[in-house]
Amino acid sequence: MSTSIAVSVENKPHDSAVGKHFKLIDRTYENNIASDYTEKIEALGKSFDYEKNSQDYWGEREFSTLYGTPFYEHASESQKRALNHLYWVGQYNHTANAEANTMLYNQVTTGVFAHLGRYEKLCEELTFETSQERFHINTFQRIGLKTKIALMGKSFLHKPVRSKKKSSQQTYLSKLIPKAVSSAFETRWGNESNSLQDSCLRTFNRMVHPNRDRYYSQYLSAREGASIPTATGGLAGNTASPSIIKFLTLSWGSSPFMACHYYTMRMVANISLKGYEYQYYKKFRHLERQGSYIPVPTSVSHYHLLDEAFHTTMSQVIAQDVYKDMPQPTAYEKWLANMIVLRGQKGVMGGLSGWLPMTFRDDAFFLPTLYRLLRSPMFELSHLDALYWMERCLCHEHEGFHANLNHHQNLLGTFQRFFEPISYLWSQCREVKPMVVGGSIERAIQRNSKAFKRFSMLEEQL
Ligand SMILES: [Fe+2]
Ligand SMILES: [Fe+2]
After folding, report:
1. Residues 252, 108: contact at Cβ < 8 Å?
2. Which of 81, 155, 323, 440 gives 20 to 30 Å between its CA and that of 131?
3. From ligand 1's centre to the CA of 362, what distance in Å?
């Protein structure tokens, strides 16, 4: 975003705001500027050559796609290495989407904070983070694409696995994709409908945020004539349709309390990222001590973690402390903030994957992805063999479920420690109940069995 956003000296926060968190924000900004690894990350991305990195594991073996499943046990050593690489690609593809959301919402919320006095450093830090994310995303995408092309070939990446008529493909998607994400696959509304939808959302937003005119995001008011910015993918895009996300964009840009609330959700992405990134960081340090070759993606993860440490500190301090400086939320804002947290927790941590380590969503979301992987040139399975292995990996207990349940228990404690002190949240949000409920192998297998049955029946009909 432009650094020229005017920071008003009016509307200074309450005196109690002169607290420790101001010092922490100042220090975080200065340290982030001083350390900044974006150039290093960009140079690593540009130097990446898959062949030179193909013989090494990029992370620990247990952070491999399909790790612990019966299929993994049957894979050859080179396939296991490739599954370790694909795990990096999948996780950082998700990270790139989440960071694209961050770029948008950093700008939306900075446009709110800019109306307040005393938050100049906070705005500068968020603006700086936005510029860092651009380099991170480019690097993740560059390495991801080169790796996928090397492992699967360009032609496979561009064609569907099975030829389907358009109409049956649409029916297939409508039956297969959970309602929560189905609208992301629908035909986009035309311009006329979009502008009607946007105008309804803006009118509603004006009605429910009484102080909106005073605090409305400068970033959004500069785009009043254009369509409302939205996100597709990442944490936000995975849990709601584009129109719901537009509604959230306006909500997070309409009051200082809601702007702070956005950082509870950004922190979910920060904690989830660290859940898999930290082992790459440790591997880097280990290889460095040994004087061994360090694969480029391992280095990228290492330096990215160092940049992200500052972003995590900012998410935590805004979500847990800065909101207390702000005017009290209305009853509607409190309700909305809780609903967003609850929905987000259900959407991104309400399940347990059997084949994607450190992933806590139902495998129902990933059935087409797994099918496609098994049919890819990496494994070249027939249609029936792919379905056979999917059933074995998703619908029966195996080591992969137990390994992921272990990750789940560790991360649950981290999430609970983060949410617990946020006083306006309902107890079910502070205790992260959706994640507690999702931490069951038995439940995961039951849900997978139902989803797999539906998936295989639909596949047969095509
Ligand atoms: Fe990043
Ligand atoms: Fe970040």
Report:
1. yes
2. 323
3. 25
Round to the nearest angstrom and report the end-to-end CA distance of the chain.
47
Split into its structural domains, the chain has a count of 1
- 448 Cα distance to chain centroid: 22
Ligand with an atom nearest the CA of residue 133: 1
pTM, two decimals, is 0.89
* pLDDT tens track for 409-435: 999 999 999 999 999 999 999 999 999
Is residue 11 domain-resident? Answer: no
pLDDT tens digits for range 297-311: 999 999 999 999 999
Supply the DSSP string of 272-318, one letter for each residue.
HHHHHHHHHHHHHHHHHHHT----HHHHHHHHHHHHHHHHHHHHHHH
In the structure, ligand 2 is a single-atom ion and the residues with CB under 5 Å from it are: 308, 311
Residue 321, in any domain of the structure: yes
400: containing domain: 17-461
Q: In this predicted model, what pLDDT tens digit does every residue of 89-134 receive, in sequence order?
A: 999 999 999 999 999 999 999 999 999 988 999 999 999 999 999 9
Distance 300 CA to ligand 2 centre (A): 14
Q: Separation of 129 CA from ligand 1 center, angstroms?
A: 8
451 C-alpha to ligand 1 centroid (Å): 33
For ligand 1, the distance from its centroid to the CA atom of residue 44, given in whole angstroms, is 15
